[in-house]
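Lab meeting, item 3. Inverse folding demo.
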């Protein structure tokens, strides 16, 4: 698997700017690039990347999407005086030209293509392009919304023709609708385009009816254009993550792209004067992290908008940190999507249900009377009143912690010859400690052998390090997974963990003490044997057993149930125990574990049977290297599984609100 993260940046893209008075265009300033790059340097991120040289895009590349006539128009701006530039700009909507616009637009696009080349050739795993002018509003023969060439659209065509990529996902998290990308790929089923955007029933720029949820693509491309219009400002972390769980990601997994391109506008972040949304910088870490589980981790993140310099640069930094596989900070804020967001989500799911099997059995309906319709002037929101610079200064200090010195602690019997990769430390010592004897005897007295004592003793030591962030995560091999898990839960709580999210897979002979005081949330994934237990808010079960799993639909359970539950609960520690007779496959377990690293600052304890070589190696891939892998192929879930989950959901979603994907 490829490794490393590429970064594209060049100062020369700051050499154009607005030359006359135009309040609409005045926000798109050269400092957008320099302040972002500066912040990346301050965080020490630039040096950790493979820095790619920039280049100009060729005319052949530009005309993959744009008309030769338009290319000529842009070319001519090189030699224009200010009046002529103004004249040309006026032919388009919210556009401005400068003598250096053409040169910068070629660099911006060329830089994007450099990134695509680096990722597609396997020189790097992923990367980010800090470029301007942006691209997603630009159309075949039109400049629009500060965009000259459509960088991401050309990148998609380029990847298709040069690398024979058959399926590309474009995620447009800019706060504006990338209508340019929509027009270009509307009838193309090889490109799945997702955009959320401030819409307010069409009253927000670019004021197009085709930005609404019911534009789903045309002809063979029907179902491959996904619009999620926000009808209210102030959308925040919970709304964005809910949109990913309930709209984008199920479709994206079912689509199974070979490349992910992100139209990464940060005007959807807090403090932005255009978007007036509330998502904090770490939200972009979470979005990025989730997308890294598609396409074998081949993801290119390309800058679009973002006009609050501090917010922009913090969000850019959080995105790049995540590509570099640093721990994901916990997502802040109440994990409750707002009513208006749920209305939008419900409608987007409804119109796409006929085209995507993972939505098919949802029996959705359209929201008839959208609650915000008719509200004219938006209410001022909290973030408007805030000094966003001050807020962010504080906020980043609060959420960013030093990366633990050890990535993975491994608890293994002395004689177990593991090939330990770099970054792994073996937990030493603790043979037959009294503490282990005491811990075990609470649950079971007959099984006190040295191997078990040794395993539990070491695990107890490593939990202390995990809780106190001396290690990012831990893999504990055990001769008795259920016993170890029961001991671990107790110990974590004693050490001060307030909320442990505990997932068990396969048979567990010992039940951990479930106190129902909210300190642990237990989720059991079982196969055939129905377990006789009463579900509660903190102890839930579901059956997932698909038989032979060369192709899996477990992603559905993850997105519809497990992750929203975990995000609602906001744990400070994740435990995953894998017992015998697992009903999900190794890749499913890897995907589950990898995605759960988005929670609890990445503090994950995985407890595995010491004989399970395959699982151990998959888990170390995910936990030690945060390796990107192909988790697919996937198949859509069956009606039976969807309906089983639905039953569980109907009870749980009133308390755990990220589970809800309908307004009511
Ligand atoms: C790339 C981008 C916004 C244009 C807004 C015009 N363009 N009112 O964010
Ligand atoms: Zn934008």
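The presenter then showed the designed sequence:
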């Amino acid at each position: 698997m490829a490794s490393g993260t590429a970064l594209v940046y060049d100062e020369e893209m700051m050499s154009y700017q607005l030359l006359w008075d135009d309040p609409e265009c005045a926000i798109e300033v050269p400092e957008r690039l320099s302040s972002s790059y500066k912040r990346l340097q301050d965080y020490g991120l630039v040096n950790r990347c493979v820095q790619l040289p920039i280049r100009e895009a060729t005319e052949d590349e530009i005309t993959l999407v744009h008309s030769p006539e338009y290319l000529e128009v842009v070319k001519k701006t090189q030699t224009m005086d200010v009046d002529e530039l103004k004249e040309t700009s006026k032919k388009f909507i919210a556009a401005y030209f400068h003598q250096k616009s053409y040169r910068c637009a070629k660099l911006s696009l060329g830089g994007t293509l450099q990134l695509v080349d680096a990722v597609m050739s396997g020189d790097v795993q992923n990367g980010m392009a800090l470029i301007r002018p942006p691209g997603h509003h630009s159309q075949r023969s039109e400049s629009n919304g500060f965009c000259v060439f459509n960088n991401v659209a050309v990148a998609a065509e380029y990847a298709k023709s040069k690398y024979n990529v058959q399926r590309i996902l474009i995620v447009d998290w800019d706060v504006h609708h990338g209508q340019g990308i929509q027009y270009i790929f509307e009838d193309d089923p090889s490109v799945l385009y997702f955009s959320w955007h401030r819409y307010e029933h069409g009253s927000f720029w670019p004021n197009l009816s085709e930005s609404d949820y019911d534009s789903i693509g045309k002809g063979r491309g029907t179902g491959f254009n996904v619009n999620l219009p926000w009808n209210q400002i102030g959308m925040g972390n919970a709304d964005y993550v809910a949109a990913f769980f309930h709209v984008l990601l199920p479709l994206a997994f079912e689509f199974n792209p070979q490349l992910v391109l992100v139209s990464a506008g940060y005007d959807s972040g807090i403090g932005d004067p255009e978007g007036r949304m509330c998502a904090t910088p770490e939200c972009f870490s979470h979005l990025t992290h989730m997308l890294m589980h598609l396409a074998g981790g081949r993801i290119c993140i390309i800058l679009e908008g973002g006009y609050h310099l501090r917010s922009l640069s913090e969000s850019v930094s959080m995105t790049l940190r995540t590509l570099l596989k640093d721990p994901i900070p916990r997502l802040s804020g109440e994990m409750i999507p707002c009513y208006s967001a749920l209305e939008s989500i419900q409608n987007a799911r409804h119109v796409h249900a006929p085209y995507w099997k993972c939505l098919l059995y949802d029996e959705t309906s359209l929201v008839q009377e959208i609650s915000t319709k008719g509200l004219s002037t938006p209410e001022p929101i909290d973030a408007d009143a805030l000094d966003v610079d001050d807020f962010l200064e504080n906020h980043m200090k609060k959420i960013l912690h030093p990366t633990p010195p050890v990535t993975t602690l491994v608890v293994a019997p002395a004689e177990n010859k593991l090939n330990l990769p770099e970054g792994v430390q073996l937990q030493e010592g603790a043979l037959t400690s009294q503490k282990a004897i005491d811990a075990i005897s609470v649950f079971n007295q007959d099984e006190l052998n040295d191997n078990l004592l040794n395993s539990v003793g070491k695990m107890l030591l490593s939990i202390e390090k995990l809780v106190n962030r001396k290690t990012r995560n831990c893999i504990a091999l055990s001769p008795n997974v259920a016993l170890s898990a029961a001991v671990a839960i107790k110990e974590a709580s004693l050490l001060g963990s307030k909320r442990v999210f505990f997932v068990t897979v396969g048979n567990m002979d010992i039940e951990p003490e479930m106190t129902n005081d909210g300190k642990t949330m237990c989720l059991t994934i079982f196969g055939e044997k129905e377990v006789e237990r009463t579900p509660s808010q903190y102890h839930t079960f579901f059956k997932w057993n698909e038989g032979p799993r060369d192709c899996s639909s477990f992603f559905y359970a993850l997105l519809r149930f497990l992750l929203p539950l975990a995000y609602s609960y906001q744990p400070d520690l994740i435990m995953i125990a894998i017992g015998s007779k697992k009903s999900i496959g190794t890749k499913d377990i890897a995907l589950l574990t990898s995605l759960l690293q988005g929670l609890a600052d990445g503090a994950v304890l995985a407890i595995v049977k010491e004989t399970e070589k395959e699982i151990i190696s998959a888990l170390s891939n995910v936990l030690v290297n945060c390796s990107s892998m192909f988790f697919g192929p996937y198949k859509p879930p069956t009606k039976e599984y969807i309906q089983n989950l639905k039953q569980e959901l109907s009870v749980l979603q009133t308390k755990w609100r990220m589970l809800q994907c309908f307004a009511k």
